[in-house]
Design goal:
This protein has 227 residues and is an alpha/beta fold. It has 9 helices and 7 strands; from the N terminus they run E-H-H-E-H-E-H-E-H-H-E-H-E-H-E-H. Helix 4 (81-88) links the parallel strand 3 (73-77) and strand 4 (94-100).
Length: 227
Amino acid sequence: MKKLFIQEVAPRDGFQNEARFIDTEDKIAFVDQLSQCGYAKIEVTSFTSPRAIPALKDAEAVMHRIHRNPDVIYTVLVPNMRGAERAMSCGVDEINLVMSVSETHNLSNLRMSRERSFEQLAAVIEEVRNTDTAINVSLSTVFGCPMQGDIEQSDVLGWIDRFAQLGVNGVTLCDTTGMAYPTQVGSLFSTVIERFSGLQITAHFHNTRGMALANTVTALQAGVERF
């Protein structure tokens, strides 16, 4: 029987969007409950500047105080070298680095070009890759950008290749605004799995247009095991 690995991202991707600050104790209790649910990986928080995301300003406190299940990988989002240093001081299992395949989206979301993002992330990878901490890269807007439109598959493959050459452990392909459709999903993941067999490949879908389940089934058929 095929084993699937499910990652829960609510403590980071969900909590950062809440207008009301969620108490640190409540965050810790929530992660502790998730740790008993059978998830392979939990994205606990983000080590982004507290000025940028005040909802997650307690990242260190949360990471230090959760009860870690040895069967769970505890990952965190890291935007830059300073974030990586903070994360490493908490003994995280994995850091998750993010950039967009869309130049327009990257400029809007991260306020820098893709090349500048790659330069910063490459420096973080160089610092972390010889430690026990794993490195995952999440590529946003892989299946389309609301500002730029269609994304060429060759662009996606090119960015995966550049990160693979730096020695990352895995890559997550993100349907950031729910634009993906099954034939596109099947084509891309089949190609990625064949070409990058040494990477852990994760699919991240949104249900904005009601297509997440269909896209998930298609990704499964293409060989994806991590969602």
